[in-house]
């Protein structure tokens, strides 16, 4: 199982002071993950990027868009230029006048194409901040003539397709400005009529208010694909949640891109889902490519504002994005709250995400203090954190995962260094062998490459509590049902070359467990490196038969024992080594396996059949 763990700023050990954090998909999944994005525009925020020397410009674009490289952005949102000041400048309209149409102006077309070149799966999203005066016939409102405004916006989408071969996946209404329901419905209608059924409407790029209207107006609810809220502060409204529609933080972050900004962004990416069920988060802005002292300077995921010398800075938010975006794709699912999504006992959050084939799990954890992760919308300190150890408990489909890959980021403060997106040694997860009931010795699940197997771990006599088990230097595991009589048991085993046991056994009709395990009777087939021993006890004091067999430590072999009535058949590496009679008593007992002495031994591919099923 290919498993990835994207992880932020948290220490993990085997040791915990609280209940384990459970990741379990057995009761289903949470919402679909819709991607992490950056917003170019709102306005003119990528202005200087286009002027960079080709080499550095290409490197910067790789840090933003190239999959598994830097921020690996999954959505690019751009301003639909309207010839208006939209924060840090104006961006050109594709229609300065009603009779004008031009789809080459500005840099957003170029940027979208560069993003698509690097990641053909990136989603594109356009939103107007304002409109040329002729839209609305000089009334000052784009809702004065909703058909005209819809025509203007859909022409931009059409230009993207016809001139640039770009598919616009999402379109918004009017940035952070009151919406008009008639306009939203008209926009949907015009999109459909012109062949853009696949372009989905995100509304209203303001606060959650539209959710209230969507609850009252079924048609409005149907035409809006996702409710997009700006700066939700990780919370969605009760009305928005009641809708059952997709919820997005369609603009967020707005923070200088230092360590605090990176920490804010990391916190927001997790918490927008943990607290607000939002499945996409988009940063304003994509890149700080505008001059210092313009409003909100350095508030991009990274900074590139010196095109004359090619200097740029890959800032902390790039790596905060990477923890999620490098280990997910749009279309993955979150786990359910309480079963892989939630808050850590002493502050911080975690989210679990699963791919559509349900065979990859990504976990992103963050814990950081309020002071060091302040976001613009934070009014007061709403949380406390303290150092903590956490234990991950993988259940459901994940129960067999024995190893997770770890990436770590620490935003450095108070003299501590910053560490960005560092690959740590994999996290080994202790696993208890299923079904095997350990009576003597200690068995656990280990992994080599993709294969899991069970190893007996005890290498020397223990200090016992059970006096009667004293002195039995054999590891012993029972499984199945004590009434089993005619069965076959087989498995593969390997004696490690270092600290290995003197042999392994397979048994049927094993009679005892607990403190009297040492005196257990049954049919025992011991495979030692130079012989086999068939005995009617664990201690190997009542030997029925010995014979030749040979193997050397370090390689895998298989043994099988079949008992039926008063006969037994012993096989080693698929060859029968003995077939003959055994005593009628004991007539029934557990199946068992173990080692001939304390020492390491590996077990895999255990199979048990009732003999009636044997041919
Ligand atoms: C929305 O636009 C329509 C069409 O121009 C107009 O009739 C209506 O009054 C507007 N609604 C609001 C709430 O402004
Ligand atoms: C347009 O883009 C699609 C991928 O989105 C590609 O398959 C197709 O070849 C492109 N067409 C042209 C004319 O470049
Ligand atoms: C975490 O566990 C380690 C031992 O594994 C211990 O030294 C450390 O004090 C623990 N930290 C906390 C905060 O409990
Ligand atoms: C074998 O035991 C020795 C100590 O006796 C230990 O140093 C070594 O790591 C062990 N090897 C394995 C594979 O467990």
From TrEMBL:
Annotated ranges, domain Glycosyl hydrolase family 59 central: 339-434
Stated name of the protein: galactosylceramidase
InterPro entries: Aldolase_TIM, ConA-like_dom_sf, GH, GH59_C, GH59_cat, Glyco_hydro_59, Glyco_hydro_59_dom
A GO cellular-component term linked to this record: membrane
Species whose genome carries this gene: Elysia marginata
PANTHER family the record matches: GALACTOCEREBROSIDASE
Active site: 176, 251
Signal peptide: 1-18
Enzyme Commission number(s): 3.2.1.46
Keywords: Disulfide bond, Glycoprotein, Glycosidase, Hydrolase, Lipid degradation, Lipid metabolism, Signal, Sphingolipid metabolism
Biological process according to GO: galactosylceramide catabolic process
């Amino acid at each position: 199982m290919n498993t990835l763990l994207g992880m932020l700023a948290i220490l993990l050990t085997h040791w915990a002071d609280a209940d384990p954090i459970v990741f379990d998909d057995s009761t289903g999944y949470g919402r679909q993950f819709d991607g992490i994005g950056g917003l170019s525009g709102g306005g003119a925020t990528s202005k200087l990027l286009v002027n960079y020397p080709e080499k550095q410009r290409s490197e910067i674009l790789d840090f933003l868009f190239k999959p598994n490289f830097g921020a690996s952005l999954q959505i690019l949102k751009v301003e639909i230029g309207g010839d208006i000041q939209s924060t840090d400048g104006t961006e050109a309209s594709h229609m300065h006048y009603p009779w004008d149409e031009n789809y080459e102006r500005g840099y957003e077309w170029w940027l979208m194409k560069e993003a698509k070149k690097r990641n053909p799966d990136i989603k594109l999203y356009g939103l107007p901040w304002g409109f040329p005066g002729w839209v609305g016939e000089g009334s000052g409102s784009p809702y004065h003539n909703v058909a005209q405004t819809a025509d203007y916006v859909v022409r931009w989408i059409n230009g993207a397709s016809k001139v640039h071969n770009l598919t616009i996946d999402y379109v918004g209404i009017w940035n952070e400005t009151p919406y008009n329901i008639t306009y939203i419905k008209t926009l949907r209608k015009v999109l459909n009529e012109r062949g853009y059924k696949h372009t989905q409407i995100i509304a209203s790029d303001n606060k959650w208010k539209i959710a209230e209207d969507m609850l009252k107006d079924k048609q409005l609810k149907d035409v809006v694909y996702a409710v997009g809220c700006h700066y939700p502060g990780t919370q969605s409204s009760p009305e928005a949640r009641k809708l059952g529609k997709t919820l997005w933080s369609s603009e967020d972050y707005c923070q200088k891109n230092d360590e605090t900004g990176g920490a804010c962004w990391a916190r927001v990416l997790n918490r927008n889902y943990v607290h607000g069920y939002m499945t996409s988060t988009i940063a304003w802005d994509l890149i700080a490519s505008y001059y210092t002292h313009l409003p909100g300077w350095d508030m991009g995921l990274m900074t590139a504002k010196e095109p004359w010398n090619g200097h740029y800075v890959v800032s902390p938010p790039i790596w905060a994005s990477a923890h999620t975006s490098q280990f997910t794709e749009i279309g993955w699912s979150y786990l359910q709250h309480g079963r892989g999504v939630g808050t850590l006992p002493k502050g911080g959050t975690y989210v679990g995400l699963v791919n559509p084939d349900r065979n990859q799990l990504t976990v992103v954890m963050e814990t950081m203090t309020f002071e060091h992760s302040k976001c613009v919308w934070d009014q007061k300190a709403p949380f406390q954190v303290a150092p903590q150890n956490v234990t991950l408990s993988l259940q459901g489909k994940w129960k067999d995962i024995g190893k997770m890959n770890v990436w770590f980021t620490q935003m450095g403060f108070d003299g501590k260094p910053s560490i960005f997106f560092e690959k740590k040694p994999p996290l080994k997860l202790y696993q208890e062998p299923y079904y095997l009931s350990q009576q003597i010795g200690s068995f656990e699940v280990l992994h080599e490459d993709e294969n899991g197997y069970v190893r007996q771990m005890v290498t020397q006599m223990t200090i016992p509590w059970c006096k009667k088990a004293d002195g039995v230097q054999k590891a012993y595991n029972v499984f199945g049902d004590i009434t089993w009589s005619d069965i076959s048991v087989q498995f593969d085993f390997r004696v490690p070359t270092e600290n290995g046991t003197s042999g392994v056994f397979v048994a049927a009709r094993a009679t005892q467990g607990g403190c009297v395990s040492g005196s257990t009777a049954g049919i025992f087939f011991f495979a030692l490196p130079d012989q086999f021993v068939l005995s009617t006890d664990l201690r190997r004091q009542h030997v029925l038969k010995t014979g030749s067999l040979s193997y050397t430590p370090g390689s895998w072999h298989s043994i099988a024992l079949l008992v039926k009535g008063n006969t037994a058949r012993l096989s080693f590496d698929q060859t029968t080594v003995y077939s003959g009679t055994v005593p009628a008593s004991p007539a029934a007992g557990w199946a068992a396996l173990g080692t001939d002495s304390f020492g390491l031994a590996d077990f895999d591919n255990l199979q048990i059949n009732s003999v009636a099923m044997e041919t």
